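Re: that chain you flagged

S.,

Sorry for the slow reply, it's been a week of failed gels. I finally had a moment to sit down with the sequence you sent. For the record, here it is as I used it:
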Amino acid sequence: MNALTLFIKKSIATTDSNTRSGLGLLFLRFFGSFALIRTHGWPKLMDLEGTMAHIPDPTGFGPTFSAYYAIFANVFCALLVMLGLFTRWASFAVISITLSGLFIVHAADPAKVQDTPLIYSIVFIALIILGSGKYSLDAIIEKKINQ
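Prediction finished late last night. Pasting the structure tokens below so you have them in one place:
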């Protein structure tokens, strides 16, 4: 039995709601962040010149700021969320990008285009509300502080 199968069986079998919610938040954090980095962050980071040439500037701070902020949110902050470190703050940076994409950049686009920033916004807003969960660096730090 491989590790993933064992993890899934133990997750489903447990009756401890704290463990189940912790595993659910770990899953949401990890895969939401992974998808954001893979699809939006890494390509921007690997083609910085192209990113600056095509990225919208919805706030009026300039394309350079917008490109660097998008990379910061979509790579660095997503990595922090994945690790469960400063999860709420990092998620706030991510949703500032996703909501500006939804309500400013893609406001006139069809729902098929708007669904991507909407789904990312939902995931990261849920993480702001719920926090990083039991299996996170935030939880380890909090535990150390409260000892």
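What I noticed first: The helical segments are 3-13, 17-46, 48-54, 63-83, 87-105, 111-130, 137-145.

Talk soon,
D.
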